[in-house]
Design a protein that fits this description.
alpha/beta, globular, 6 strands, Mannitol-specific EII, Chain A, 154 residues, 44% helix, single chain
Length: 154
Amino acid sequence: MEIADLIGPEGVVPNLRATNKKQALQELARRAAEITGLSERAILDVLLERERLGTTGVGNGIAIPHGKLATLTRLYGLFARLERPIDFDSIDEQPVDLIFLLLAPETAGADHLKALARVSRLLRDKGMCEKLRGTDKAEGLYALLTESPAIRAA
């Protein structure tokens, strides 16, 4: 599974404005609703419920909020680079400035886990995160996120 299988160019937000975690999730839910055709409220509810189980702020300025919705037919991703870092209750207590939202059908057990692992691997790459933080154009962010791992390794 590649990042390009999860996210399209319309799923990249180069300068998301939010002052806190809830506001960031609300804005991401709004944008995800436009892409998926689902209710913004349903998406936000799933994301907030997941956050109640434990933060999706994984450290190093990165958050990977995710959830499952019965009415989805495939996995969807949305990437946002925040205009300013925000508190996300991250495990390392550092503010977050890169967010990759992942939404999956309720039936996508293994695929959901594979997608989470793929996103996590991508965002664990410090060099990749530096490039993402240094790019404020949607096209450039999309190109970085979706370039082949073989090309990156070269």
